[in-house]
Amino acid sequence: MSDALPVALIDTIRARLGDRARPGEPLARYTSFRIGGPADLLVLPDTADELAHVLATAAAFGVRLTLLGGGSNVLVGDGGMRGVVVKLGRGFSRVEWDTPTIRAGAGVQLGRLARAAVARGRAGLEYAEGIPGTVGGALFMNAGAYGGEVAHAVESVEGLGRDGVALDLAGHEVAFGYRRAALPNGFVVTAVRFRLRPDGTAGERMGAARARRVASQPHGRANAGSIFKNPNGDHAGRLIEVAGLKGARAGRARISERHANFILNEGGARAGDVKALMDVAQRVVWERSGVWLEPEVQLVGSW
User: Fold this and answer.
1) Biggest CA-to-CA distance, the chain
2) How far is 17 from 44, CA to CA, in rounded Å?
3) pLDDT digits (tens, 9 = 90+) for 264-288
4) pTM
5) If we measure between CA atoms, which residue out of 144, 136, 154, 16 comes closest to residue 67?
6) Quick check: is 179 catalytic?
7) Catalytic entry in 22, 126, 205, 226
8) Active site residue: 25, 50, 149, 296, which one?
9) If you write DSSP's letter for every residue of 43-76 in order, what string do you get?
10) Active site residue 94
11) Worst-scoring range by mean pLDDT, 70-74, 135-139, 237-241?
12) Residue 25 annotated to the active site
């Protein structure tokens, strides 16, 4: 796998990151689906300077660079991922509690941040308590649930351009849409500053959101969250259920009986199994309801 990359590139990055630069590293352990072939080179930078070094080196060698994030909303192909794959290390998991804003590193778990904010009597993220993934990934996907979304609380975004140069964006400079954020091409988010408001009732709303999530979503099996975006005026899960696909299987993957917009890894599922179920869902829903489901999960890598 790694022989697809210039040896000089690998040596240059390894000289800076040591064993946090890993040729041929399997990616299944880094995704919530527990699925994915090997990366040509996986790197885990701990600081903005290390990340800038990786970005600049990849750019200098003309090598593709992909940010993996928390791996919670992604399906990595069984053939793995070409080029350099970046997963932010522990240094990007710090939170600074200012007033009235908080600064969260891109590697911070969104649900953990939401719980910590509510514990401090701050509102604006309580809907996100059960959303998997990191702050950086949540920004990129404009993650949301139960009427709330990341875009509502973003004050500013810090990151690096594809050349490794620091770039800060005001929240209003980011064009948010449904499950997407328009960021500069090649931009890597390193931190997000949120503006939250004092509200002693945020815990009640978080509890209500948690109860809804526990009652309606599957637990105990690896998955990537919602597979398809909700079409206007409807819900993808309802359309898949009406199509009679709850419990449908392909290999070791299964459409959840509890919520049809979730595909579960029963242990040993391959990306091809999940993709086969996605294809069936799109086709049958189209035939039955005339709606083409658009994936919310990101399909990356080699298939």
Assistant:
1) 56
2) 8
3) 999 999 999 999 999 999 999 999 9
4) 0.86
5) 136
6) yes
7) 226
8) 296
9) E---SHHHHHHHHHHHHHHT--EEE-TTSSSEEE
10) no
11) 70-74
12) no
